[in-house]
Each structure stands twice: as C-alpha cells, then as structure tokens.
Amino acid sequence: MANVSIRDVARHAGVSVGTVSNVLNRPDAVSPDSVTKVQAAIEALGYVRNEAARKLRAGVSATVGFVVLDGQNPFYYDVIRGAEDEASRHGIAILYGATDEDVKRERVYLDLFEEQQVRGLLIAPYGDVNRRLERLRERGIGAVLVDRFSGENKFSSVSVDNVAGGRMAVEHLVATGRRRIAFVGGPFEMRQATDRLAGARVAAEGAEVPVDLEVIATAAMGVADGAAAGERILRRRAAERPDAVFAVNDLVALGLLQSLVGDRRVMVPEEIAIIGFDDISFAAAAAVPLSSMRQPSKVIGMTALRVLLEEAADPDLIPRQTVFQPELVVRRSTDPHR
Amino acid sequence: MANVSIRDVARHAGVSVGTVSNVLNRPDAVSPDSVTKVQAAIEALGYVRNEAARKLRAGVSATVGFVVLDGQNPFYYDVIRGAEDEASRHGIAILYGATDEDVKRERVYLDLFEEQQVRGLLIAPYGDVNRRLERLRERGIGAVLVDRFSGENKFSSVSVDNVAGGRMAVEHLVATGRRRIAFVGGPFEMRQATDRLAGARVAAEGAEVPVDLEVIATAAMGVADGAAAGERILRRRAAERPDAVFAVNDLVALGLLQSLVGDRRVMVPEEIAIIGFDDISFAAAAAVPLSSMRQPSKVIGMTALRVLLEEAADPDLIPRQTVFQPELVVRRSTDPHR
DNA sequence: TGAACGTCATGAAACGTTTCAAGCGCGTTC
DNA sequence: GAACGCGCTTGAAACGTTTCATGACGTTCA
Q1: What does B1-39 look like in DSSP terms, one character per residue?
Q2: Is the pLDDT of residue B322 over 90?
Q3: A5 CB closer than 7 A to any strand D atom
Q4: What is the predicted pLDDT for the residue at B150?
Q5: Residue A115: which of B48, B65, B80 has the nearest Cβ?
Q6: What would the pLDDT profile of B234-253 be if each residue is shown by its tens digit?
Q7: Distance CA A264, CA B219 (A)
Q8: Does the CB of B40 sit below 7 A from strand D?
Q9: Model confidence pLDDT, tens digit, residues A93-134
Q10: In degrees, to the nearest 5, what angle opens at C-alpha A121 toward C-alphas A120 and A123?
Q11: Which one of A149, A154, A233, B311 is separated from B331 by 20 to 30 angstroms, measured CA to CA?
Q12: How distant is the Cα of A264 from the closest Cα of chain B, in angstroms?
C-alpha cells in the first residue's frame, strides 16, 4: 500500500520503466502521448520519487549542507533564507547545522553531510576547515565559503567587503564629529573581526583630523559579550571613555547599548555613539535605533547557493570570490555631535 | 579514487561484505578479531558509509525534516537548536525549511521532504496541514507538531501552555496596578494567538478588581506589525490609551516598544507597560528591557525530536501531547505603577 | 526500392547497502 | 560417535532508480 514504485507506475500506464524515468527526467525525449499517460498514472497512484534510489544510482544529490558558525546571529538566518529560496527553486533541500563556534560539532556535521552525500556545502566556518574541505572535494563534494573570504583561493566564497565596511563605519563616526573611537569585537582568529578592524584603522589614519582608535577585545560576538564590554567602559572615568564605538556586529552593539543606557548612566548617542554591523532586523527596533553596516544577507545566501550549484555541475570551474559592498544605514545611535 | 565501497573494505580486510556491514551495524554479532580488521581497513581506505544506499535498502532514514512557520522569529532558532542537539546525538541530520507563513511554500517543503523519505517531520504549522500529514503518515512518515497543541489528538505535539501563559501575563499586569489592558496580536487563525488571548480573558475576568481587556488585532506576528499597532495606539487621545499591553509575542512587543518610545511620546512602563511572550534573547536587550513569558524553547525542540524518534521506532504508539509551563520573566517594561 | 536516419520505447544492468538463509568449524551432550 | 547447538561468516538477493545498448517503426532521400 504504502510505497508506489516507478514499476507500478509503468504497469499502470502500460509503458516500460525506462519510459517513466524519462518522463520524469527528460520529458522531451518522450512522445507527448506517453507523457500524459504516465502523468495520469502518477497522479492516480500517488507516486512520489524515491530520492534515495535516485541518489544512489545517479550519484546526484538533491540536498545541500549549510553549516553555520553562529546559530545565535539572526544575520545567518537571513543568509539561509536567501539560500533556501534559491534551493527550493531547484527542488533542493537544505541540511542545516549550527555549530556555535564549536570546532568538534563542526566536524560532526561535516561527517554527517559527507555520509548524506550532499551536492555541496555552504559553510560559514569557524575552525580551520580547509583540509577537511579539500578531502570532501576529492570525494566530489564542493564547498562555498559564506561570509568569509577564502584566503588562498582554494574555494569560492561569497562575502561582504569587511575592510570597506569597517572603513565606512569609522568614516561615518568621524564625519559626525567623533574623535575617540573604540572598536569592540573579537575574537581575532575570525577574519570578520580582523578585517573590520583593519578597515577602521584605515579610516582613522586617513582622517583629516586626529582620531584615536582603541581596541576593546571581546571573547565572542554575542549580546553578552557586548554587554560585558559596556561594563568595562562604564568603569572608566567619563573623560577616559570613547565618544563612539564601532561594534564588530549588531549583537555586540545591542549588548553595549543595553549596558550603557540600561542604567541611564550614559546617553547614546550624545555621550557615546554606536554603530554596528549586519543591520539585523532588531537593530532598527533597539532602545536607540542602531546605525549599522548593512549586508545584503539574502543575496549572499542566494549567490552562494548558485555558485555552489554551478561548481557542482562543472567541477573544473576555478574558484571565484564574490564580494559585495556593505551599505551604511544611519539611525539615531550616531546622530551628529552638537 | 573517489568512492570506497563496502566491497573494497571487505576485500582489504579479507572478509565478506556481510561481515563489514555487521561490524558497522551490530558489532556484537561479529568476532572481535573481525571488528579490528574491518576497522583498520575502514581507516586505511577512508571509507564513508553511503547513506543513500543504506536508506534505499534498509528503508531507514538518517534525516528529519523541520518545517518552521516563521523564519523571522528567533524563538524558533532556539527550538531548532534543541532539536539539533538531540539529533546529532543520534547521528541524524536536520532538513530545514522556513515557510514564512506561506502556505504554498509549506507544501513545497512537505513534498521535498517526502521525496527525501525523512524519518519524520517536526512542524510548526501555519496552514491546515492535517490532511497532508495524514497522507505522509500512511507512507510511514510521522510528524510531531511543535509549538501547537494538536486539537484532535491525531499527532503528538510539544508546546507550551499558551492559555496559562496568557493568564499569567495579564495577572502580572493586574498585580502591578494596570487596569486597562490591550491584547495585541493575531492573526486569530493561529492557535498561539487565540489561546494566549483566551488566557488573558480568564485573568481579566477573574481579577478582584474590574479590568478592561480590549483586543488590537494584527495581521501577523512580526516587529512591523507591532509597530503598526503602536501607531494606532498613539493616534488615540492619552486618556483612551490602555495602561498596559500584552503582546502575542516578543517581536510584536518590540515593535510596539519601538513605536511608543521611539519619539518619546509615551513612557514605558510609566504610561504603558508591555509584556511579551517567548523571552527571546533580544527581549532583555530592548530599549526598555522587556518582561516576557519564557518558553523552554530548547527543551521543546529536544523533546519534539525525541518523541518523533520514539514514534518512528514504534508506529503504534498513541499520540501524546507534551505541554510545558511558561515562566514569567519580569523586567523593567512592567515595573509597578506608582 | 533500399539505405539511411530520426524518434521513441524497451528492459536489463548497475549503484552500495542490508538482510537472511545457509554453511562452517568446533565444542558439548547423550 | 552421532547429534546438536553455538558463534561466526558467507554470498546472493533485494531496495527503486537511472542509464544505455538495442531495436522497432516511420520518414526521407538518392
């Protein structure tokens, strides 16, 4: 009862299994007559293709793995949604794994996805996965790095220009009159952090006025880390506090905001301006609406999936790095200094 | 080069394929000697099990589908993370699909997952999927409803007691001195909304003082819907505004908060108190830290997956409804009335 | 008229695994 | 010493699909 196979469909339609398969996969190689008969049979029997058998025989998989570094960050959910949109257009499902900056889990997921023989892998990596990814590629599973530029050009990547973003953020702070700027973020094993900081340095050094840039390191990139950094700033005497903060991402910025204005000890943006990165949807809804560097997150996901599929279809393509430009979104948290 | 099969392992270890399979699946039915030989061969050749073939033959799948209604709501991220934790413990991967309250997409994903022959389905439904789910069950694919009590007892579900949550929220508002309370939420096709409202009514009617409860309906449950509702409240004369709002979830509450305090027109909690539902991590980081009804989201995900696996193992289990109690989390947005 | 060709349909082989009946070797029991 | 049981291994069958060599049939062209 339960399982209708292609054989049943063939019998019901009065054709061979080969023909049914062709109707499913290359309808043009089949007479219109057969197509209608087969489709009627499929309808009548409620046939659903068995993806496992298809994968086994054809070696082509209808799943793609997505490994995300930081399952707390809404930014990645937008990326996934972009990838999903594109995937469902191709009849492809997404296997999802959040690793929470845990290298061991990252490996578990890669193993799992390898067994599943995914068509390819989208990965926002934390650990050093290059070796692992190369091994997967030997097995025919390609990968596209998301939100991280692939240094050695071994893999394609889709990301945003973090250096430019950092530069633009600090230029904006300088343009609104700030001179003592703190970069809050970390850990610096993460390219996102180092690149954004590098951009910030460029802007600080290139400014026409003298600008101080200090670095306040955080252990991770969550709300709690931002709040902790805020506490550290609050412990200083007012004169020694920065007059603006560039946070490595919006979560950190929100944490900062919360601790700074929470006890109404510091006015934002009057005493300290804050700008974040990512422009997650909560940035606009924050206590003080948060300025941020917007990433085209859905487009990143969509593009990454598209690149992945293209490379899976033609493994000889050389890796390419797609880099989008971030966009400055100004809100109240960086209102100009009076 | 690329693909090492069980046959290659068998040859390399000097045993039969059957033995290799047994080492993989029931090591106790095999002599220790064979086990070590086979494991050595697996190691040497870098063998990885082909999940497609396994699924085809054994009919048992190592994937579970998770269909989420509202990909914007961080609450579901936590649910997924709970499910993931449990899944990876069983070597199971999660196929993820966010439908964004789009009935058509919901169907697309169900189709996709049916082709993939997932072991089962976790679903936070939007549309009326009961018929579809029953058909899937006939095919051997069970489902567990997440975050929604299954009315007719046809499927197991894991959710939170929304009626109790609504009651507790309004009781809290009344206890802190509010008397003119608005429920902001919708659409009322969604059980979450109707149940929370029902609970609110119980509290309002059971209060020892007269309490007004009005309903401000929203089209959906996102930040924008909350902000729109806030605008409507702002258009009223001050005397006609509620003195407290119970929002159907935190996103709506954040939107409300943003529009109410955004232009500093209304003081929260002094003029209007706000309480939300879910206790997403941004609730604590809001402009005015938000009181909320906390759901044990990770536990919900974990439990749902566990129930799903149990039912997949033994299809004769009767459906069971697991209901957790929400917990009141008090923050500044409902500071007592003076 | 016959060769050549194009269009379709056919059915068996193959993908890599699990399962299972059968068999082997060896020790134990009557 | 035959019969039996036990622990383990074996190899072929089966899962449902795609692929591909083969061939049937009809049309075109020299």
Answers
A1: -----HHHHHHHHTS-HHHHHHHHH-GGGS-HHHHHHHH
A2: yes
A3: yes
A4: 67
A5: B48
A6: 999 999 999 999 999 999 99
A7: 35
A8: no
A9: 999 998 877 888 888 898 999 999 999 999 988 767 888 888
A10: 165
A11: A233
A12: 11
- DSSP code of B325? P
User: Which residues does A138 contact at the CB level (< 8 Å), separation at least 6?
Assistant: B1, B2
For residue B15, give the nucleotide whose C1' atom is nearest its CA. Answer: D9
User: What CATH class is the domain B162-295?
Assistant: alpha beta
Give the span between the Cα atoms of A222 and A24, in whole angstroms. Answer: 47
Radius of gyration of chain B (CA): 25
Dmax (CA) for chain B in angstroms is: 87
Task: Read off the pLDDT band of A3 (50, 70, 90).
Answer: confident
Of A134-138, A207-211, A228-232, A294-298, least confident by mean pLDDT is A134-138
Q: Is the domain defined by B60-159+297-324 classed in CATH 3.40.50.720?
A: no
- Equal CATH topology for A6-49 and A60-159+297-324: no
- Asked if residues A293 and A337 have their Cβ atoms less than 8 Å apart, the reply is no
Contact A139 B281 (CB under 8 A): no
Q: b/e map of A290-327 (b: 16 or more CB within 10 Å)?
A: bbbbbbbbbbbbbbbbbbbbebbeeeeeebeebebebe
Residue A53 exposed, middle or buried by CB count within 10 Å (0-12, 13-18, 19+)? middle
Contact A2 B51 (CB under 8 A): no
* DSSP codes of every residue in B82-125: HHHHHHHHTT-EEEEEE-TT-HHHHHHHHHHHHHTT-SEEEEE-
| Mean pLDDT on A303-325 | 93
- Matching residue, tokens 């001050």: B238
Which residues, including other chains, have CB under 8 Å from residue B264's CB and lie 6 or more apart?
Answer: none
State the CB neighbour count (10 A cutoff) for residue A240. Answer: 9
CA gap B153, A146 in Å, rounded: 43
The CA angle B192-B97-A107, to the nearest 5 degrees, is 120
- The residues spanned by each domain of chain B are 6-49, 60-159+297-324, 162-295
Residue B56 contacts strand D, CB under 7 A: yes
Mean pLDDT of chain B: 92
DSSP state of A247: E
Rg (CA), chain A: 25
Q: Residue B7 and residue A331: Cα distance in Å, rounded? A: 63
CA-based diameter of chain A, in Å?
Answer: 87
What's the whole-model pTM score? 0.91
Sign of CA dihedral B64, B67, B73, B76: negative
Find, in chain B, the residue whose alpha carbon is nearest to that of A82.
Answer: B98
- Rounded Cα distance between A271 and B335, Å, is 27
CATH T-level topology, domain A6-49: 434 Repressor (Amino-terminal Domain) (1.10.260)
Q: Where are the alpha helices (DSSP H) in A116-190?
A: 130-138, 162-175
Segment A261-293, tens digit of pLDDT: 876 678 999 999 999 999 998 898 887 899 999
Q: Which single residue is written with the structure tokens 């969604």?
A: B190
Q: Are A94 and A84 in contact (CB under 8 A)?
A: yes
